[in-house]
Amino acid sequence: MATFLGINLFGLFGQLLVGLINGSFYALLSLGLAIIFGLLKIINFAQGALYMVGAFFAWIALDSMGVNYWAALVFVPLAVGAIGVLMERFLLRPIANEDHLYSLLLTFGLALILQGTFTHLYGSSGLSYAIPEALKGGTRLPFMYLPNYRAWIIVASLVVCAGTWYMIEKTKLGAYLRAGTENPALMQAFGINVPLIVTLTFGFGVGLAGLAGVMAAPVYAVSPEMGSNMLIVVFAIVVIGGMGSIGGAILTGLGMGIVEGLTKYFYPEASTTVIFVVMVVVLLTKPAGLFGKEA
After folding, report:
1. What SS3 state is found at 193?
2. pTM of this structure
3. What is the CA angle 67-139-1, rounded to 5?
4. Domain boundaries 19-124+148-285, corresponding CATH code
5. Per-residue pLDDT of the chain (295 residues; tens, 9 = 90+)
Protein backbone atom coordinates (compact mmCIF):
# COMPACT_ATOMS: atom_id res chain seq x y z
CA MET A 1 0.00 0.00 0.00
CA ALA A 2 1.55 3.30 -1.09
CA THR A 3 1.73 5.87 1.68
CA PHE A 4 3.28 9.32 2.03
CA LEU A 5 3.61 11.02 5.43
CA GLY A 6 1.10 8.52 6.75
CA ILE A 7 -1.43 9.28 3.98
CA ASN A 8 -2.84 6.37 2.00
CA LEU A 9 -2.32 7.63 -1.56
CA PHE A 10 -4.73 5.09 -3.06
CA GLY A 11 -7.51 6.28 -0.77
CA LEU A 12 -6.65 9.97 -1.24
CA PHE A 13 -6.57 9.85 -5.04
CA GLY A 14 -9.71 7.71 -5.06
CA GLN A 15 -11.59 10.39 -3.12
CA LEU A 16 -10.15 13.10 -5.35
CA LEU A 17 -11.54 11.22 -8.35
CA VAL A 18 -14.96 11.04 -6.71
CA GLY A 19 -14.71 14.74 -5.95
CA LEU A 20 -13.82 15.57 -9.56
CA ILE A 21 -16.77 13.54 -10.84
CA ASN A 22 -19.17 15.25 -8.43
CA GLY A 23 -17.55 18.58 -9.30
CA SER A 24 -18.15 17.94 -13.00
CA PHE A 25 -21.88 17.57 -12.37
CA TYR A 26 -21.85 20.56 -10.00
CA ALA A 27 -20.19 22.63 -12.72
CA LEU A 28 -22.73 21.68 -15.41
CA LEU A 29 -25.74 22.33 -13.19
CA SER A 30 -24.28 25.51 -11.70
CA LEU A 31 -23.48 26.75 -15.19
CA GLY A 32 -27.11 26.33 -16.24
CA LEU A 33 -28.33 28.13 -13.14
CA ALA A 34 -25.79 30.93 -13.60
CA ILE A 35 -26.83 31.44 -17.23
CA ILE A 36 -30.52 31.59 -16.34
CA PHE A 37 -30.03 33.95 -13.40
CA GLY A 38 -27.13 35.98 -14.79
CA LEU A 39 -28.77 36.71 -18.13
CA LEU A 40 -32.48 36.44 -17.34
CA LYS A 41 -32.63 37.16 -13.58
CA ILE A 42 -34.82 34.05 -13.10
CA ILE A 43 -34.23 31.85 -10.04
CA ASN A 44 -34.92 28.40 -11.47
CA PHE A 45 -35.65 26.03 -8.59
CA ALA A 46 -36.67 23.33 -11.09
CA GLN A 47 -33.10 22.83 -12.34
CA GLY A 48 -32.56 19.78 -10.13
CA ALA A 49 -35.86 18.24 -11.21
CA LEU A 50 -34.96 18.77 -14.88
CA TYR A 51 -31.62 17.06 -14.22
CA MET A 52 -33.63 14.13 -12.87
CA VAL A 53 -35.93 14.24 -15.92
CA GLY A 54 -32.87 14.05 -18.19
CA ALA A 55 -31.67 10.90 -16.42
CA PHE A 56 -35.14 9.33 -16.64
CA PHE A 57 -35.52 10.24 -20.32
CA ALA A 58 -32.22 8.48 -21.04
CA TRP A 59 -33.33 5.40 -19.07
CA ILE A 60 -36.77 5.33 -20.73
CA ALA A 61 -35.26 5.78 -24.19
CA LEU A 62 -32.90 2.83 -23.65
CA ASP A 63 -35.39 0.58 -21.86
CA SER A 64 -38.42 1.17 -24.09
CA MET A 65 -37.00 2.24 -27.46
CA GLY A 66 -33.47 0.90 -27.52
CA VAL A 67 -31.96 4.40 -27.92
CA ASN A 68 -28.33 4.09 -26.87
CA TYR A 69 -26.30 6.38 -24.65
CA TRP A 70 -24.66 8.34 -27.47
CA ALA A 71 -27.97 9.16 -29.12
CA ALA A 72 -29.41 10.10 -25.71
CA LEU A 73 -26.57 12.59 -25.22
CA VAL A 74 -27.94 14.48 -28.22
CA PHE A 75 -31.70 14.04 -28.03
CA VAL A 76 -32.33 14.18 -24.27
CA PRO A 77 -30.81 17.68 -23.74
CA LEU A 78 -32.90 18.87 -26.70
CA ALA A 79 -36.05 17.35 -25.16
CA VAL A 80 -35.34 18.83 -21.73
CA GLY A 81 -34.48 22.14 -23.39
CA ALA A 82 -37.87 22.03 -25.15
CA ILE A 83 -39.52 21.62 -21.74
CA GLY A 84 -37.60 24.70 -20.64
CA VAL A 85 -38.82 26.63 -23.68
CA LEU A 86 -42.42 25.77 -22.79
CA MET A 87 -41.81 26.71 -19.15
CA GLU A 88 -40.48 30.12 -20.07
CA ARG A 89 -43.11 30.83 -22.70
CA PHE A 90 -46.25 29.79 -20.83
CA LEU A 91 -45.35 29.89 -17.12
CA LEU A 92 -42.54 32.38 -16.52
CA ARG A 93 -43.19 35.01 -19.18
CA PRO A 94 -46.61 36.00 -17.73
CA ILE A 95 -44.91 36.84 -14.40
CA ALA A 96 -41.72 38.31 -15.91
CA ASN A 97 -42.41 41.77 -14.48
CA GLU A 98 -43.22 40.52 -11.00
CA ASP A 99 -40.84 40.11 -8.06
CA HIS A 100 -38.20 37.37 -8.42
CA LEU A 101 -39.90 35.50 -5.58
CA TYR A 102 -42.76 34.60 -7.94
CA SER A 103 -40.49 32.74 -10.35
CA LEU A 104 -38.76 30.99 -7.45
CA LEU A 105 -42.08 29.76 -6.02
CA LEU A 106 -43.40 28.75 -9.44
CA THR A 107 -40.31 26.74 -10.38
CA PHE A 108 -40.19 25.19 -6.90
CA GLY A 109 -43.79 24.05 -7.32
CA LEU A 110 -43.00 22.67 -10.76
CA ALA A 111 -40.05 20.74 -9.31
CA LEU A 112 -42.36 19.12 -6.74
CA ILE A 113 -44.86 18.21 -9.48
CA LEU A 114 -42.15 16.59 -11.62
CA GLN A 115 -40.69 14.68 -8.69
CA GLY A 116 -44.13 13.49 -7.55
CA THR A 117 -45.06 12.42 -11.09
CA PHE A 118 -41.95 10.30 -11.60
CA THR A 119 -42.27 8.83 -8.10
CA HIS A 120 -45.85 7.78 -8.92
CA LEU A 121 -44.82 6.27 -12.27
CA TYR A 122 -41.53 4.57 -11.34
CA GLY A 123 -41.38 4.43 -7.56
CA SER A 124 -38.64 5.79 -5.33
CA SER A 125 -36.11 2.98 -5.73
CA GLY A 126 -33.18 3.62 -8.06
CA LEU A 127 -33.04 2.27 -11.61
CA SER A 128 -29.78 1.15 -13.19
CA TYR A 129 -28.43 2.41 -16.51
CA ALA A 130 -25.62 0.47 -18.15
CA ILE A 131 -22.30 2.10 -18.98
CA PRO A 132 -21.87 2.23 -22.78
CA GLU A 133 -19.71 -0.57 -24.12
CA ALA A 134 -17.08 1.79 -25.54
CA LEU A 135 -16.42 3.30 -22.10
CA LYS A 136 -16.25 0.15 -19.99
CA GLY A 137 -13.02 -0.82 -18.28
CA GLY A 138 -10.35 1.53 -17.04
CA THR A 139 -6.68 2.45 -16.79
CA ARG A 140 -4.29 1.54 -13.98
CA LEU A 141 -2.45 4.69 -12.89
CA PRO A 142 0.42 4.78 -10.35
CA PHE A 143 -1.81 5.53 -7.35
CA MET A 144 -5.31 4.67 -8.52
CA TYR A 145 -7.52 2.86 -10.97
CA LEU A 146 -9.27 5.28 -13.34
CA PRO A 147 -12.52 3.94 -14.85
CA ASN A 148 -12.93 5.07 -18.44
CA TYR A 149 -16.46 6.34 -17.93
CA ARG A 150 -15.40 8.53 -14.99
CA ALA A 151 -12.62 10.01 -17.09
CA TRP A 152 -15.14 10.66 -19.89
CA ILE A 153 -17.43 12.55 -17.49
CA ILE A 154 -14.64 14.85 -16.37
CA VAL A 155 -13.35 15.57 -19.89
CA ALA A 156 -16.81 15.99 -21.45
CA SER A 157 -18.04 18.36 -18.74
CA LEU A 158 -14.90 20.48 -19.01
CA VAL A 159 -15.33 20.73 -22.78
CA VAL A 160 -19.01 21.68 -22.50
CA CYS A 161 -18.37 24.22 -19.74
CA ALA A 162 -15.41 25.81 -21.54
CA GLY A 163 -17.32 25.94 -24.83
CA THR A 164 -20.35 27.53 -23.18
CA TRP A 165 -18.21 30.13 -21.40
CA TYR A 166 -16.45 31.02 -24.64
CA MET A 167 -19.74 31.31 -26.53
CA ILE A 168 -21.29 33.66 -23.97
CA GLU A 169 -18.24 35.76 -23.14
CA LYS A 170 -16.27 35.89 -26.41
CA THR A 171 -18.63 35.60 -29.39
CA LYS A 172 -21.06 37.93 -31.13
CA LEU A 173 -23.94 35.61 -30.19
CA GLY A 174 -22.99 35.94 -26.53
CA ALA A 175 -22.86 39.73 -26.91
CA TYR A 176 -26.40 39.67 -28.32
CA LEU A 177 -27.55 37.52 -25.39
CA ARG A 178 -26.07 39.86 -22.81
CA ALA A 179 -27.25 43.03 -24.55
CA GLY A 180 -30.73 41.64 -25.13
CA THR A 181 -31.25 41.00 -21.45
CA GLU A 182 -29.52 44.13 -20.15
CA ASN A 183 -31.19 46.61 -22.54
CA PRO A 184 -34.06 44.87 -24.36
CA ALA A 185 -35.63 48.10 -25.66
CA LEU A 186 -32.43 49.10 -27.44
CA MET A 187 -31.94 45.65 -28.96
CA GLN A 188 -35.54 45.56 -30.19
CA ALA A 189 -34.95 48.92 -31.84
CA PHE A 190 -32.21 47.21 -33.87
CA GLY A 191 -34.63 44.50 -34.94
CA ILE A 192 -33.48 41.80 -32.50
CA ASN A 193 -36.24 39.45 -31.28
CA VAL A 194 -35.52 39.76 -27.55
CA PRO A 195 -38.36 37.46 -26.33
CA LEU A 196 -37.01 34.70 -28.56
CA ILE A 197 -33.50 35.23 -27.15
CA VAL A 198 -34.85 34.97 -23.61
CA THR A 199 -36.77 31.78 -24.41
CA LEU A 200 -33.84 30.09 -26.13
CA THR A 201 -31.43 31.11 -23.36
CA PHE A 202 -33.69 29.58 -20.73
CA GLY A 203 -34.06 26.44 -22.86
CA PHE A 204 -30.27 26.18 -23.21
CA GLY A 205 -29.77 26.58 -19.47
CA VAL A 206 -32.14 23.74 -18.59
CA GLY A 207 -30.80 21.69 -21.52
CA LEU A 208 -27.47 21.62 -19.66
CA ALA A 209 -29.33 20.02 -16.73
CA GLY A 210 -30.69 17.39 -19.12
CA LEU A 211 -27.17 16.71 -20.42
CA ALA A 212 -25.89 16.30 -16.86
CA GLY A 213 -28.75 13.89 -16.17
CA VAL A 214 -27.79 11.65 -19.11
CA MET A 215 -24.15 11.62 -18.02
CA ALA A 216 -25.14 10.87 -14.41
CA ALA A 217 -27.46 7.94 -15.25
CA PRO A 218 -24.69 5.29 -15.46
CA VAL A 219 -23.00 6.60 -12.28
CA TYR A 220 -25.86 7.23 -9.87
CA ALA A 221 -29.12 5.35 -9.49
CA VAL A 222 -31.83 6.98 -11.62
CA SER A 223 -34.45 8.02 -9.06
CA PRO A 224 -36.95 10.85 -8.50
CA GLU A 225 -34.94 12.11 -5.51
CA MET A 226 -31.65 12.54 -7.37
CA GLY A 227 -32.50 16.09 -8.44
CA SER A 228 -33.60 17.39 -5.05
CA ASN A 229 -30.47 15.93 -3.43
CA MET A 230 -28.27 17.82 -5.91
CA LEU A 231 -30.16 21.12 -6.09
CA ILE A 232 -29.38 22.55 -2.65
CA VAL A 233 -25.66 21.86 -3.08
CA VAL A 234 -25.67 23.43 -6.55
CA PHE A 235 -27.43 26.57 -5.31
CA ALA A 236 -24.82 26.88 -2.56
CA ILE A 237 -22.08 26.59 -5.21
CA VAL A 238 -23.70 29.30 -7.35
CA VAL A 239 -23.82 31.59 -4.30
CA ILE A 240 -20.15 30.89 -3.53
CA GLY A 241 -19.09 31.59 -7.10
CA GLY A 242 -21.28 34.67 -7.40
CA MET A 243 -24.87 34.72 -8.62
CA GLY A 244 -24.80 35.11 -12.38
CA SER A 245 -21.04 34.61 -12.83
CA ILE A 246 -20.60 32.10 -15.65
CA GLY A 247 -16.90 31.45 -15.05
CA GLY A 248 -17.43 31.53 -11.29
CA ALA A 249 -20.05 28.77 -11.50
CA ILE A 250 -17.70 26.50 -13.47
CA LEU A 251 -14.61 27.03 -11.33
CA THR A 252 -16.49 26.87 -8.05
CA GLY A 253 -18.37 23.72 -9.08
CA LEU A 254 -15.13 21.89 -9.85
CA GLY A 255 -13.35 23.36 -6.83
CA MET A 256 -16.09 22.45 -4.38
CA GLY A 257 -16.16 18.91 -5.74
CA ILE A 258 -12.45 18.59 -4.97
CA VAL A 259 -12.91 20.15 -1.51
CA GLU A 260 -15.74 17.71 -0.82
CA GLY A 261 -13.54 14.78 -1.93
CA LEU A 262 -10.63 15.86 0.29
CA THR A 263 -13.00 16.30 3.23
CA LYS A 264 -14.35 12.77 2.72
CA TYR A 265 -10.82 11.45 3.10
CA PHE A 266 -9.54 13.57 6.01
CA TYR A 267 -12.76 14.17 7.97
CA PRO A 268 -15.70 12.17 6.51
CA GLU A 269 -18.20 13.45 9.09
CA ALA A 270 -17.99 16.96 7.60
CA SER A 271 -18.20 15.97 3.93
CA THR A 272 -21.94 16.66 3.65
CA THR A 273 -21.69 20.12 5.22
CA VAL A 274 -18.32 21.49 4.08
CA ILE A 275 -19.80 23.25 1.01
CA PHE A 276 -22.35 25.04 3.19
CA VAL A 277 -19.65 26.05 5.67
CA VAL A 278 -17.69 27.55 2.78
CA MET A 279 -20.85 29.33 1.61
CA VAL A 280 -21.37 30.92 5.03
CA VAL A 281 -17.74 32.08 5.20
CA VAL A 282 -17.91 33.54 1.68
CA LEU A 283 -21.19 35.35 2.38
CA LEU A 284 -19.74 36.87 5.55
CA THR A 285 -16.54 38.04 3.87
CA LYS A 286 -17.61 38.65 0.25
CA PRO A 287 -21.41 38.77 -0.08
CA ALA A 288 -21.30 39.00 -3.89
CA GLY A 289 -19.44 35.69 -4.11
CA LEU A 290 -15.88 34.85 -5.07
CA PHE A 291 -16.31 35.90 -8.71
CA GLY A 292 -19.42 38.05 -8.47
CA LYS A 293 -19.64 41.80 -8.85
CA GLU A 294 -20.83 44.03 -6.05
CA ALA A 295 -24.27 45.48 -6.70
Report:
1. coil
2. 0.92
3. 135
4. 1.10.3470
5. 466 555 666 777 788 888 999 999 999 999 999 889 877 888 899 999 999 999 999 999 999 998 999 999 999 999 999 999 999 999 999 998 888 889 999 999 999 999 999 999 999 888 999 999 999 998 887 777 888 999 999 999 999 999 999 998 888 888 877 777 677 777 777 777 878 888 999 999 999 999 999 999 999 889 999 998 788 999 999 999 988 788 999 999 999 999 999 999 888 899 889 999 999 999 999 988 898 776 4
